From TrEMBL:
Subcellular location field: Nucleus, Nucleolus
Keyword Cell inner membrane: no
Entry GO terms, CC: nucleolus; ribonucleoprotein complex
Protein name: Zinc finger CCHC domain-containing protein 17
Bias (Basic and acidic residues): 162-181
S1 motif domain location: 8-80
Region (Disordered): 155-181
Pfam families (alphabetical): S1
Source organism of the structure: Balaeniceps rex (Shoebill)
GO process annotations (BP): RNA stabilization
UniProt-listed InterPro entries: NA-bd_OB-fold (IPR012340), S1_domain (IPR003029), ZCCHC17_S1 (IPR047913), Znf_CCHC (IPR001878)
Amino acid sequence: MEVLPELYAIFQGEVATVTEYGAFIKIPGCRKQGLVHKTHMSSCRVDKPSEIVDVGDKVWVKLIGKEMKDDKLKLSLSMKVVNQGTGKDLDPNNVSLDQDERKKRTFRDYTGQKVTLEAVLNTVCKKCGCKGHFAKECFVQPGGTKYSLIPEEEEEEVAAAGHERDKKTSLADDSSKKRKK
């Protein structure tokens, strides 16, 4: 069986193929190849791996992962943690690799949980009496201006119709007062 480098070993390999998601590197001393994903090519964002490496280039890589999948050994490599000029390890304690792993693991899909604002929108502030917020979120100072939510279009039409009715009744009241005098 072929001797593979140990995990976190640094070596110089030759680029075998370049794809849209990374580059496959020939591992010296064996027939295996490892993948440098485009996220591990540089500390900067890489959109096209072909802009970074070409087939036949010699690059310094660090073996960052070994995985058995479908009875095949898949090797993950990284170029961004190795100085490409000298081959020196830029991440000797594998801190940035651990951070990258944590970023992958902490993602959670919250799309199934729906957030509704109705419960908050139907509240009335105990401090100012306005709808849509709680007293602890209220910015009203004693004797200050009161603010409320902007009404929906339907509410505006209902309020406008009610306002028109109020005007008509107040005008009728005014005219009746004038007649009485």
